[in-house]
Write a sequence for this structure.
């Protein structure tokens, strides 16, 4: 039983670190600030979700699990706000995104 | 009524976070929760925006759907980053929700799924930036909009 949980934790950590590495590559590789926010969003959601899931497998049914899930909930509430603030500030400084614009933009 | 619900939520949070169940600690918790509710009530913070309880009945269903979407778009974002085929596009969508909280939930859900970000909003028009046209079509077919309107439950 211990072994199975350890294997699940390992798989979750592997997927989590993979998505963080890909997200970090995207931060360097993508063309402009708006596209880079997508890569940062990938780190925020995929990375943290899988790491927290892996840690939940280790902690079992206890109060620590509740605290881990609460950490996840707060990250999920706050990370889109920071992404939106970054994008909105760039738009207010009149930085236009590269690529095509469909219809009239604000 | 709403103050009571807020008090219960705060008390449950206290009990889960502290992990010590002696009479002294619990009574201190009850005291501080009651004080917080008093301050919030005096500041007129307990309204539909501060405590959106109309979300609660359908929240679990929506969260499961949202997690599924986040997983799917995480995979496609990873593919786009590895392939390097980026064709960003910017467009506007109309939000059909009534309350401000639901609009914020919709905008946050768009931002939370990797590949799409809300960059600006004016009343009920959102400007969305997408990594390529697949992500753009996911927002433009209004599936998420309908889900959030259903979560709000006012129509």
């Amino acid at each position: 039983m211990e072994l199975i949980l350890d294997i699940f934790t390992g798989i979750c950590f592997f997927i989590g670190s993979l998505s963080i590495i890909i997200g970090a590559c995207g931060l360097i590789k993508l063309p402009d600030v708006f596209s880079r926010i997508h890569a940062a969003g990938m780190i925020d959601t995929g990375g943290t979700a899988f790491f927290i899931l892996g840690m939940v497998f280790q902690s079992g049914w206890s109060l620590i699990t509740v605290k881990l899930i609460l950490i996840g909930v707060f990250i999920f509430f706050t990370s889109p706000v920071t992404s939106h603030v970054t994008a909105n500030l760039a738009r207010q400084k009149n930085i236009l995104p590269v690529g095509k614009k469909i219809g009239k933009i604000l | 009524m709403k103050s009571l619900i807020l008090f219960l939520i705060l008390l449950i949070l206290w009990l889960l976070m502290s992990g010590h169940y002696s009479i002294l600690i619990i009574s201190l918790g009850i005291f501080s929760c009651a004080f917080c509710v008093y301050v919030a009530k005096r500041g007129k913070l307990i309204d539909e925006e501060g405590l959106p309880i109309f979300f609660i009945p359908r929240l679990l269903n929506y969260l499961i759907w949202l997690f599924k979407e986040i997983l799917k778009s995480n995979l496609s974002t990873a593919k786009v980053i590895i392939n390097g085929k980026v064709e960003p596009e910017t467009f506007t969508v109309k939000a059909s929700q009534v309350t401000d909280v639901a609009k914020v939930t919709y905008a946050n859900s768009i931002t939370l799924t990797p590949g799409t970000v809300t960059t600006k909003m004016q009343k009920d028009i959102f400007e969305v930036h997408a990594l390529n046209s697949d992500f753009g079509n996911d927002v433009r077919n209004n599936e998420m909009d309908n889900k959030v309107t259903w979560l709000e439950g006012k129509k």
